[in-house]
Amino acid sequence: MRPVVAGRRILPKLTVLAIAAGGALLCSCSLSQQLVLDPEGSGSADVQVSLKPMFVAYLQDLEQSVGGSGAIFDTRGMADTFRQFGGVTGVSVESPSPDRLNIRLEFADITQFFPSRLAGGVPPPVTFVSAGGVSTLRFYLSRDNFARIAELPPFRGNQILMTLSPQEATHDTEKDYLDLLSYAFGDYAQGASVADVVKASKVRIALTVRGRIVSHVGGVQQGNTVVFSVPLLAALVLDRPLDFSVTFGP
Predict the structure, then answer these.
(1) d(CA 138, CA 245)
(2) 106, 122, 166, 193: most buried by Cβ count inside 10 Å?
(3) How do the domains of the chain map onto residue ranges?
């Protein structure tokens, strides 16, 4: 079964938000990110992505339908793109199997990935401010700033993943996405309830700070780590911005 083409862009038979800076994945796939941050904004990020077999088969078909090789992850291209960002001191991108992607980044300044302010006063996806010995990292993701996430791998230069991302000019609801996904999966779903799978899926981000946590918005604190668990559907639709932060000191 091949993905269909229609409308304003490619309308795939599966619509997903894959990674991101961020991020998200579906179909019992998992996205886990561990972020370690120093008070001056340096640190590291480890991202692990795991895909279920039916999702792998679908994405391989989709890649081939637009003239690609069928490979899901372009690890060399991702690594080269990350190295172009200022402040990146170490990069490792590996795909040990078609269903897995591991990314390791070390950086001297997390603010180098995004501008401090976008047009119209929209916050960037990641903001870091340090003053008076207190630092705050804020994550803010909306339809208005998702284009900045699209400048990072694996979205950058990837027609498929750009097509699968939230669309700024649309007003899709969660029901719209679930209806589309339920239709789109077709034979790939193998009798599974796509809606149930998506509703149960989450994106997990664990932020560990080298210091003492003063406060946080969203998430659950575990020592000097705050764990944020975001419903996949919320990241897919982005009809409401995702906004959470951590403030920490010495």
Answers:
(1) 4
(2) 166
(3) 30-249
